[in-house]
Amino acid sequence: MSSFKKFTDFLFSKQSLRYMCTSHFWGPVSNFGIPIAAILDLKKDPDLISGPMTGSLIAYSLVFMRYSMAVTPKNYLLFGCHFVNEIAQLAQGFRWVNHYYSSDKKSKEIEAAPSASST
User: Cys bridge to 28: 19, 53, 78, 112, which one at CB 3.0-4.6 A?
Assistant: First the structure.
């Protein structure tokens, strides 16, 4: 039996189709929009990043990673969604911190500011 045939038999089995008609499947699938958006935003200007929102999404994903393992049956798809989101939001958080609090930016601002002694 070919591996493609095995896969299609599994995919269209009653058990798989029953699972795909539950919120255990569609909740995480629809939630994947958040990490996908965060990954796509990694190349955008850091001025567009909201620090408080990024922090909230980091905490949100941690809570739901724990929740996905606490429910019965364990929801590995939800865990995967929030794991990807956690990594993406941490990357955005590091970009935000680096942009607003890095020593390079502060030194450039100090150099660019007119000195008080020159007047």
Answer: 78
Question: How far apart (Å, rounded) are the C-alpha atoms in residues 26 and 3?
Answer: 26
**Of the candidates 70, 69, 37, which has an alpha carbon nearest to the alpha carbon of residue 53?**
37
List Cα–Cα distances, 38 to 46, 61, 82, 106, in angstroms: 12, 13, 12, 27
CB neighbour list of residue 31: distance below 8 Å, 6 or more residues apart? 78, 81, 82, 85
Over the stretch 35-85, which tens digit does the pLDDT of each residue have?
A: 999 999 999 999 999 999 999 999 999 999 999 999 998 989 999 999 999
Question: Considering the entire predicted model, what is its pTM?
Answer: 0.72
